[in-house]
Amino acid sequence: MEKKILDKLKEIEKSKNVEILYAVESGSRAWGFASPDSDYEIRFIYKHDLDYYLSLWEQTDVIEFMTEDDLDGSGWDLRKAVRLLAKSNAPLLEWLFSPVEYYENEAFATQMRDLAKQCFSPIACLHHYLGTTKNFMDFCEQEHVKLKSYFYALRTALAGKWIIENNTFPPVDFMELLPIAPLNIQEKIIELMAIKANNNETYLHPKEVLITDFLLETVKFNQENASALGSGKKMSLELDEVFREFTFYNLKTI
């Protein structure tokens, strides 16, 4: 599958006349709780040639694709990515620290990760994760629940709790988040992960009151502790330098 993904990225570079600087897996396959029929959620950062950045006019800064064999691709232009980094955008940070990597320009990835740590805004990322958890709570309180809903809610609830307790960006790998949950919750989650790994996304699981109650408690904890968190460091000059550096060097391909 990795070769197929890299071939698709090469095709994108050629057809769109861009250079891909960084490409990873996102979603359940990166988080560690994929179902057999889960898509491959390929996320990437790319750059155009210099004329694109010198144009007076706004142009598209996103490339998306979906293939018949479940490759779900979405990429952001370099300028868009750097601007989002300044805001400590949580999805972008997850891309930068994904455990499943397809390609990287090493110098670019190193600088972006370093700046991500310096720009990290606990309050901005917590609000992102808190909002996502809340979006799934109605689904999690039904009598029968898609396990995807449970795991999306659990991951973001634990990510928020991690930020409050550690003041750092949470691990992308769900298993690295798990130890901050109580032992009985960890045991139930591992049981559910095994079920999810053997059932398609359409599978409906009987409501787990233990999990739902834990989610409600964690949402409350995250809300009550949000106001104590700080914001990120402003890094405008440093981000400008990264943008200029990778805008002006020669176009290459994977």
UniProtKB/TrEMBL annotation:
<protein>
    <submittedName>
        <fullName>Nucleotidyltransferase domain-containing protein</fullName>
    </submittedName>
</protein>
<dbReference type="InterPro" id="IPR018775">
    <property type="entry name" value="RlaP"/>
</dbReference>
<dbReference type="Pfam" id="PF10127">
    <property type="entry name" value="RlaP"/>
</dbReference>
